[in-house]
Amino acid sequence: MKNMEIIMLIGKSNKGKTASLTFVHEILVAYGAKTTLVKRIGSKDQRDFSSVLIYRGKKIRIFTMGDVGDKKSREELWEALNEKKYDFFICACNDDGHSEFIKKATQQPIEKTDAKTNACRRLAANWYDASRIIELLDKIIGKRRKA
Q1: What is the domain extent for residue 135?
Q2: Order of strands across the sheet that contains 5-11
Q3: pLDDT, tens digit, 9 for 90 and up, residues 26-84
Q4: CA–CA dist 145, 142 (Å, integer)
Q5: Dihedral sign computed on CA atoms, order 35, 131, 47, 109
Q6: What is the signed CA dihedral for 137, 47, 71, 35, rounded to 10 degrees?
Q7: Among 38, 93, 86, 97, which Cα is nearest to 65's?
Q8: Which tens digits make up the pLDDT trace of 86-144?
Q9: How far is Cα 41 from Cα 55, in angstroms, rounded to an integer?
Q10: How many domains does the chain have?
């Protein structure tokens, strides 16, 4: 099927990976992406989601469940990664021993910016990480159009 680019945001549990990828989704929509699917994944008390968007003619899947400790979560991530129906797959990945997922990345994984101090710094770190992902996405799309 498609040569899917896999962009991963990696970091420790509960450090804002889902929040950063939520910002990626919101920024893409603000930039004109059309959302074709948004669904909650994981348990009801989690904020994780999966979405599919069309952005600049490319089909993008965002999958936020990065803390894949249980079997069901791990299976959901592998299933999503193996669908190969997308131009881009953007996901969170816990770096606590999940190297098999990290090896799937086609781009250098983006390390989650750590902001331990206060809510304002955490918010700024999440926006910063989201902007890094958007910049990488736009850079890759731009190279593909020139080729």
Answers
A1: 5-146
A2: 34-40, 49-55, 58-63, 88-94, 5-11, 110-111
A3: 999 999 999 987 777 666 556 788 899 999 999 999 988 776 656 776 677 777 777 77
A4: 5
A5: positive
A6: -40
A7: 93
A8: 999 998 887 765 566 666 667 778 888 887 778 888 899 999 999 999 999 999 998 76
A9: 22
A10: 1
* CA atoms of 121 and 119, how far apart (whole Å): 5
Ranges assigned E (strand) in the chain: 5-11, 34-40, 49-55, 58-63, 88-94, 110-111
Whole-model pTM: value is: 0.85
Residues 6+ apart with CB under 8 A from 126: 16, 19, 20, 23, 113
DSSP assignment of 81-102 equals HH----SEEEEEEE-SS-HHHH
The amino acid at residue 21 is L
Distances from the Cα of 100 to the Cαs of 69, 74, 105, 106, in angstroms?
13, 11, 10, 13
